[in-house]
Design goal:
The protein has 183 residues and is mainly beta. It has one helix at residues 2-17, and strands spanning 36-38, 41-43, 48-49, 55-56, 61-71, 90-96, 99-103, 117-124, 131-139, 145-154, 166-170, 173-182.
Length: 183
């Protein structure tokens, strides 16, 4: 009987150890923010890093490429028109603290209230994570100007991620910023 058990155990051991089953190195690995597991490590998308892609990277440079004024009040808060002739002369301004960073170069004189209105620009923000003010203004030159709307914004979105386009505002006061990020 002993002669049968030893060969049987040897065969069992030989066949159970000879199978090479592939090991899944990504089993149990969770990659966040759209990262993909490759050979047990997370390959993170641009803007994220860390072992599980949960670290948000701050870009070296943020450039606003265009500003779309999606919606804005068609009349002043008191119900009167922005201009006597019922049209307006819109400009966009962006500030950092007390410094004017952008005054849109194209003033569109006496245009009808069409929405949206897009302003091209190439504005590099001084700080990727800084706080800024954007304003939409009816500029009547020497006759003065009226702020149609304005908002504070950061280049990063609601959840602290850098994405484009960035929507700023709400209700009838909405900007959409198209940006490029250099990491």
């Amino acid at each position: 009987m002993k002669k049968l058990i030893i060969p049987f155990l040897s065969m069992l051991l030989l066949f159970s150890c000879s199978k090479d089953e592939p090991i899944d190195l990504c089993a149990g690995v969770i990659c966040r923010n759209g990262g993909n597991c490759i050979n047990g490590d997370c390959d993170c998308p641009e803007g994220f890093s860390g072992p599980d892609c949960s670290t948000i990277d701050v870009p070296r440079k943020v450039t606003i490429k265009s500003i779309k004024v999606v919606d804005y009040p068609s009349v002043k808060p008191d119900g009167t028109s922005w201009d006597d002739i019922g049209e307006h002369d819109p400009v966009v301004k962006i500030y950092s603290e007390n410094e004017t960073l952008l005054w849109s170069s194209t003033i569109k004189q006496n245009i009808p209230y069409t929405k949206p209105q897009t302003f091209a620009c190439d504005l590099v923000l001084p700080e990727s994570d800084g706080r800024y003010i954007i304003r939409f203004i009816d500029d009547d030159g020497i006759l003065g100007s009226d702020q149609m709307m304005g908002w504070f914004f950061n280049a990063y979105g609601l959840f602290g991620t850098y994405s484009s386009p960035l929507t700023v505002g709400s209700g009838d006061s909405i900007f959409e910023l198209t940006m490029d990020f250099d990491y």
